[in-house]
Amino acid sequence: MPLTHRLLAFSVALMWGLNFIAINASLAQFPPFMLVALRFAIVAVPTLLLVPRPQVPARWLFGYGLGFGTLQFLFLYWGMAAGFPTGLASLVLQSSAPFTVLLGATVFRERVSARQLAGLGVATSGLAVVGWQQAQAAAFAPFLLVLAAGFGWAIGNVSNARAMSGATQRPNPLHVTLWMSVVPPVPMALLSLAVEGPDAIARSFTPGPELLPALAGLAYTVLIGTLAGSGIWTWLMARHPAGMVAPFSMLVPVVGLSASAVLLGERLGIPQLVGAALVIIGVLWGSRTRRRPVPPATGPAISEPAPSTAAAR
């Protein structure tokens, strides 16, 4: 991968890591369920008007929107609004990786390698350490909410994979992501009205000292975190093997934890740092692809064909 492309991948990790700071600013003003509805409505309206619907199976597109869009952010925003630390939220959300492996193996009978099982075990032990620390701090319920957000992301992952593989012709991945955003706004708005109430929603739009930072955070989440970040990531994934691009996502919790320490004053104890390291190592190890050894040449040298486009990019 060229240096410029590596820098682009790093920039996406930076955007997504700082996204948690933006979410924290928005949650200071808006109720969590209404904030989810707002976030996706801003994307869904122009998508419905301007972006052609990708030709993928509707049930998997709906599953992608339900898991990745609705369940992930419902539980993430709920957990953060209930007091779960912003930096740790960026870490615990990485539970989506082992959850995706488990869903693929149990529901869709996908083969799981020994490397994936080992990585799953290490990452799970790290999450257990973080969860134990949160239980000691009387914050176990918000931890479970963010863990549920990781499970929602995993549902979105397996649904997205099947949407792409079940398409009659290869769709634009960014269009699939944009159309996923059409699913969450209505159910989240109805849930907000039922649980948070119209009075709380109306108060959240009342001018005050926290409204402008909250709107700026929402704008960052939509324009930078979702559109710019996802757009660059999709562009990179189309030009390089997934195994070269995906590990950069593990910089997201590093950025999230660091930014939360600097900007929000959050501090982690030694057990939490150990748990964070185990999660990152486990996910990275489990996501590595094993290279097949190249057999030694036994005859005269033969000119090999040029590598395929996907491998050459």
Automatic annotation (TrEMBL):
<feature type="transmembrane region" description="Helical">
    <location>
        <begin position="7"/>
        <end position="27"/>
    </location>
</feature>
<dbReference type="InterPro" id="IPR050638">
    <property type="entry name" value="AA-Vitamin_Transporters"/>
</dbReference>
<feature type="transmembrane region" description="Helical">
    <location>
        <begin position="215"/>
        <end position="238"/>
    </location>
</feature>
<feature type="domain" description="EamA">
    <location>
        <begin position="144"/>
        <end position="285"/>
    </location>
</feature>
<feature type="transmembrane region" description="Helical">
    <location>
        <begin position="33"/>
        <end position="51"/>
    </location>
</feature>
<feature type="domain" description="EamA">
    <location>
        <begin position="7"/>
        <end position="130"/>
    </location>
</feature>
<protein>
    <submittedName>
        <fullName>EamA family transporter</fullName>
    </submittedName>
</protein>
<feature type="transmembrane region" description="Helical">
    <location>
        <begin position="270"/>
        <end position="287"/>
    </location>
</feature>
<dbReference type="InterPro" id="IPR037185">
    <property type="entry name" value="EmrE-like"/>
</dbReference>
<feature type="transmembrane region" description="Helical">
    <location>
        <begin position="84"/>
        <end position="105"/>
    </location>
</feature>
<feature type="transmembrane region" description="Helical">
    <location>
        <begin position="245"/>
        <end position="264"/>
    </location>
</feature>
<feature type="transmembrane region" description="Helical">
    <location>
        <begin position="117"/>
        <end position="133"/>
    </location>
</feature>
<keyword id="KW-1133">Transmembrane helix</keyword>
<keyword id="KW-0472">Membrane</keyword>
<comment type="similarity">
    <text>Belongs to the EamA transporter family.</text>
</comment>
<feature type="transmembrane region" description="Helical">
    <location>
        <begin position="176"/>
        <end position="195"/>
    </location>
</feature>
<feature type="transmembrane region" description="Helical">
    <location>
        <begin position="58"/>
        <end position="78"/>
    </location>
</feature>
<dbReference type="InterPro" id="IPR000620">
    <property type="entry name" value="EamA_dom"/>
</dbReference>
<feature type="transmembrane region" description="Helical">
    <location>
        <begin position="139"/>
        <end position="156"/>
    </location>
</feature>
<feature type="region of interest" description="Disordered">
    <location>
        <begin position="293"/>
        <end position="313"/>
    </location>
</feature>
<dbReference type="Pfam" id="PF00892">
    <property type="entry name" value="EamA"/>
</dbReference>
<keyword id="KW-0812">Transmembrane</keyword>
